[in-house]
Amino acid sequence: MAKVLMKGNEAIGAAAIQAGCKYFFGYPITPQSELPEYMARELPKVGGVFLQAESEIAAINMVYGAAGAGARVMTSSSSPGISLKQEGISYIAGAELPCLIVNIMRGGPGLGSIQPSQTDYFQATRGGGNGDYRLVVYAPANIQEMVDLIIEGFDVADQYRNPVMILGDGMIGQMMEPVEFKPPKRREIPEKDWATTGTGGKRKPNIINSLYIAAEDLEAHNIKLQAKYKKIKENEVRVESYNIEDADVVISAYGTTARIAKTAIAKLESEGYKVGLIRPITLWPYPYDEFKKINPNCKGILTVEMNTGQMVDDVKIAVEGKFPVHFYGRTGGMVPTPEAIIENVKKICGGEI
Amino acid sequence: MEERIVIAGFGGQGVMALGQLLTFAGMTEDKSVSWLPSYGPEMRGGTANCNVIISSEAVGSPVVTESTSVIVMNRPSLDKFEKTIKSGGKLFINSSLIDRKSTREDIEVYYIPANEIANDLGNSRVANMVMLGAFLEATNVVKKSTILEKAFTAVFGENRAHLLPINKEALEKGAEIVRG
Amino acid sequence: MTIVFERTKGLTDVETHYCPGCTHGIIHRLVGEAMVELGVLDKAIGVAPVGCSVFAYNYFNCDMHEAAHGRAPAVATGIKRVHPENFVFTYQGDGDLASIGTAEIVHAAHRGEKISTIFVNNAIYGMTGGQMAPTTLVGQKATTAPGGRSEEHSGRPIKISEMLATIHGAKFVERVAVNTPANIRKAKKAIIECFKVQLEGKGFGIVEVLSTCPTNWGMTAPEAMKWLEDNMIPYYPLGNFRRPEEAE
Q: Out of A69, A261, C170, C209, which could bridge C109 as a Cys pair, Cβ 3.0 to 4.6 Å?
């Protein structure tokens, strides 16, 4: 298929439909509203259902019902709305149901702003709702990658019976880039024989549930969840890295911030600096092992984010104290500039920080 | 090559569409492209702008902090973006609505009476295309034919194809101003 | 020997966790019987709430989905939109539906969602230990209203059926009680009629069932039945509030 020019939010919808998603439950919030608008327009054409819920809470619980009923289903929102969805996300993770959740992040806390941010890193990677659970979290850096990850993300969700989150920001949601819809490499997806479809008088009732009132049962359920998460950690880590074996400084950044870092790296290279990049594509599971490949004489790691330093914790875990870990970020909807990143890298090289 | 363009004006002056035309044309000519709009309250009656990057390499930051060209349709946009142009870059000023000159001496500045030309053509809404004509003549970032033959209907839809002739004329008039 | 009474196939053959004298058991049986009599058990998908009937998924003999507190109508919406040909119902208490889940129930009704809701109103939070509900009567004691509910402090109890009957998408709304054999028969009739509204694709239906909570009311079962009759029915009048033909 030829390349088309699409807005990020609309490309998400197109990718989801391409992946066979038939159901979308959502609620309007800037800067992601083009996505529910797109789904309202396009889903009925493929025999699907778009429903604007009365709240984000209702929307995620509709997703919970539809996922339990065996459907490919998704929702989307932006930061404050994602906070409201945490209850349902926890239930979905507890009941081990597949679905796709898109967070087009904006500034926080509270009502914050509508400008791009990455301030929901902790919320996305540490669970967000109550209980000991994980989401598979993808942080695409461009619209093509976002489309590819959405198409594969639905399969990942089905394969592991686990919610998958696409963590973007207002920038990737609002911008336009060329995109090509490629058929995904298909995974082996187990039959959804656990779904609520009506017994048809042919089997025992299926029950979708996250309640285990006996302590030993709930512990056993959690041990099972952890075994699944271990498998995901072993098989699903995604990372892009560049020139890290040879670098004097390695920048670690994800999503749109990583592409700003790339612009900075290109300029630094033209000036003779050796700068590497580790760009986690999965924020959970986190690519800790990639940091082991860094040049042992590297002077430091610079983590760049559109927040006040959230991924920096994971970078510190990853480098195991071998390198100093620095942070540069902008927040509140402010976007880091390549020039500021360059300045920070030069300071690390010069031993100033 | 990498063109980093800011297009700015009032909401309703067609600055977003102008950016999309350029972006689509760049894609059609096999360049790497990105289009990034301002969004939110400023879209509703305030100043709207978009950042367009057309590059022979993969696009890094989609945010234009140092621009190669700026197209401004109104005075607040000139005040805001004039300083972002890198030395040797180009500035396109809609002189119909902007009453001051550029203060920069290290860039090339073009004054285009876009609204007057558009009104003469009989449709004030093609002022953005007059600016685009001037921009393309001065920069050659993409071909005019790509804009007219491929991008126009892709961005505005087939049902606007009847507006193609007047838009073509607007492009030509803008180009003439630059040619002098 | 002739069998004159047997367990409905609509329920599973397990002991319930309900307290002695609680009327949830009666209401479960009515719902189970209604599904069997309408022939929809095989295509039924039920949604259990949070509250005393949290384990309802173990009792109804059909596919079940356990929802978060108050969200059953949203979960049921998701299920029904995926399986429009199935029979989808929620079973909710008054804390679940009338307090934390008001938005979900109002909007399920407002959309005319083709689901059926059994709303069990016993004027108290049972599972958490007798706290005040929005449905607790003025003067009625609760662990969070130790001096009895004060109208000045907490307002008057909310009348869900009357409220939902103002919403166009709610095509069947009836309040029943299960304190006497005659009322139980009326309750079953209402449940069947309500389920039919869904099966005929007409819209949302709800049956509010006035129920007892001897444990948290601090009464014997017969005392509770009498208290329901003397105190609840006068405030929450029984009867039908809406049939499809009236919803124009």
A: C170
